[in-house]
Every structure is written in structure tokens, then in C-alpha cells.
Sequence to fold (421 residues):
Amino acid sequence: MDDRREVIITGGPGGHGRISFSDQGSRYKGGPDGGIGGMGGLVIVTSTPSRRDFHHFGHVEAIEGNPGEPGGTNGRTGRDGRPFTIEVPLGTTVVERTEDGEDVELADLLQPGANLLIARGGPGGKGNTGFATSTNQTPVLAEVGAEGEERQIVLELRLDSDVALIGAPNVGKSALLAALSNARPRVADYPFTTVDPVHGVLDLGDRDILLLELPGLSEGASGGRGLGSAHLRHARRAQGLAYVLDGAAGDVVEEYRIVHREVAAYGEGLTDKPALVIVTKADLPEVAGGLERALRAVRRASKARVVGVSAVSGDGLEGLRSELARLAPPRERQRGGPQRTEAPPVPVRPGRVVVSVRDGVFEVSAPRAERILPMVDVKDWRARLQLHAELGRLGVLDALEKHGVQTGDTVRIGGEELLWE
Ligand SMILES: Nc1nc2c(ncn2[C@@H]2O[C@H](COP(=O)(O)OP(=O)(O)OP(=O)(O)O)[C@@H](O)[C@H]2O)c(=O)[nH]1
Ligand SMILES: [Mg+2]
Fold:
């Protein structure tokens, strides 16, 4: 099951501003009329029952919103980029990994159509109209659109359930699920038969309980090896945990300890959930004999309620049903219409001008200037002059002079290189 993804999500880039004059026939005649670029498109994550996991992402590791359209002539603003929607299965938790490596939960998408605005698009660039001043009636400068918000995102599917069945491989979880519910999972005499979590509905007469069998946990799984502990994410929405132990495996107390240790190592409060322990395969003669003693020992070790059952003979299943009912009392599920949420705005890079000199090259960080440079026609002396004046207004010249820039030096602003004149 493809139940976890790391993706970089970026809002659409803004459209570029336009350089244009009202009298197209003769260059620079008439007033400037180049419009502003459109806003980049939003990126939205929405949950839908039509998706079961994230396999439809394929190999995608980065998702970018639609770009805004460039500004037009006649002062027309470019069209905004259309919102882009990412579909995820119900039960997806959206987590942002911040720059300092912290994980922040942005939303839990449980309802069909619940959505999260995850990345806003960048604003469009100014057209040359925006550079007109009383002394410059023929501006030939414009800006490129700004980048959209960028976030490093972890999408994690956490399946819904009332009770999660947890245990070592091959202990009889699937056989138990089949005996209790409408589910018909594969039961086989080898470990890791169940590779994906399996749902089953247990009908209590007056209500249903949603059971979820997790694939077998193996010792040391939480150490990152194997898939064992990754599946525990699907226990996070459960009200209670049912530990399934193989009565025929020998030391059931040790078996309980191993599984419980894995659950504790996963963390996230799983061990704070109410728990029930089930010792199964009680039909086997070697189990039946010592069953009462085994149940007592596990009760002492786990401090939980403990039942002995057999999926084969059906012994103890009635009692187990009432224990499960008690473990998962009726609860209010989140209801109502689709929820809409918005991720907090990503802080914008401060507009400050910073110059650093490396290997004789003057590196300039100046967000405003960086957006003008790619649009400059360096073969046009007017454009070069106007750029110079604009760099003065933006404080870039002062900063460069402070660092001792001289004619002939290389200056890098954003991705663009200039020979200083
Ligand atoms: N005698 C007896 N055998 C059982 C019982 N429950 C399960 N088994 C047997 O134990 C083996 C494993 O059963 P499964 O239900 O597949 O075990 P599981 O825990 O789901 O295994 P994985 O999905 O591989 O982790 C099978 O051979 C079953 O027939 C039981 O109550 N009594
Ligand atoms: Mg199984």
C-alpha cells in the first residue's frame, strides 16, 4: 500500500509583466501600456473516496501550481493561474516539514471533499506601466512573476477504525478477523500473509465496530527495518488496540512484551489508548491445557483485560465481542460538510539588499531587483540606463559601492550576471 509520500508543493508562479507602448507602430511612442502578470494558481489538497492510497502520484516528487498569464497590452492584467487540486484518500494527514526539521500538522482530511489550501501562487510582475515616473515616460523595464509558496510536505494515510488488531506475524489475526467480521482476508500458515491493512465490520446487533487488521509486526521493526512499525500509523485513529497473541507460540508474556515494545517505540500516544489482549488458538491441545495460567500471566504483565479464544472452534468469541464493544464505546464521528482549511502563509523573503563577495564575484540578494533583471534587454542602451537608475532606487548601487565594486567586475543578481559598467 502506497500510504506515505514526501513531496515538495509549490504555488504557481506569477505571470510576467508586459513591456508595451500604446502606439505599437513606432517604438517608444505613445505611453507605456504593459499590464501586470496574473497571480500564480493555488494548490489545494482534497480528500476523496475515489482514492485508496497515493499510487496515483506515480514517481512525482514535486508538484507546482499553474502559472499566472503574462500581462497584456492596453494595460490588461494577465489571467490568474487556475487552482490545481491534488486528490488524496480519506484519512490523509498533511504534515509540513519546516526548515528547522520540525513536523507541523496542517490538516487531517477525513470527509469527502475536505480540503486544504496548501500553497498560494506568486503575485504577477509589474508591467512597464508600473515603472513610469515623471522623469521617465518611456519605461522599458518590467518584472517577472514571483515564485509561489513552497512547502516540504509529508502526506500520510491513516486509515479509520474503531479497533486495530495488532500482533506478531502468523499469530492468527486474519483468522480472527474472518471469524468476527464480514472480511475474508487470506489466512495461511506462513508469516506476512497480510501485507496491507484489512478492514472488517463487526456487527454487534445494535451497532457496528470497524476492525482493522495490521500486517504482522516483527521485533525491531521500529528500528526502521522492515515495514512493521510503519503500519502502526493506521492504529492512530483507532479508539482501542487489540493485541493478538499466539497461544501456541510458547511464552505469551514474552510475545506480548515484544509487540508492546514496538508499539511504545512508535510513540504518538498509541500505548495510551485502551487495550485488550487476545490469546488465540485455544482449540489446540497444547494451548487449552495451560490457558488459564497463560491468561493470568499476561493479565499481570499487561494490566489489560485478557481473553482466550479460538478462531477455529469459535470458543470465546462471544466474550471477545463484548470486550471489543467495551473497548470501542459508541463515539461521535466527525460530521458535517466538507471542512476547508488554509495553511498559514509562508513568510516572504525580506526585501533587504545583501551583497557578498566570493572569488571576486559580487553576489547580490535583492528580491525586487532579481525580478527585473531577467526582463532587461541588455542590448538596449535605454534599458541598461533605466536598470541602473532602478538599482539606485532599490539601494543595490549603494550596497555594491560599499563593497568596492569597480568597472569590469562581475555582479550576479539572482541568476543573471552583469559586467559592471
Ligand atoms: N488451530 C488454530 N489455528 C489457527 C487459529 N487461528 C489461526 N490459525 C492458523 O494460524 C496460521 C496463521 O493464521 P493467520 O490468521 O493467517 O495469521 P496472521 O496473524 O493474520 O498472519 P500474518 O497476516 O501473516 O501476520 C494459519 O495457518 C491459521 O490456520 C486458531 O484459532 N486455531
Ligand atoms: Mg493476516
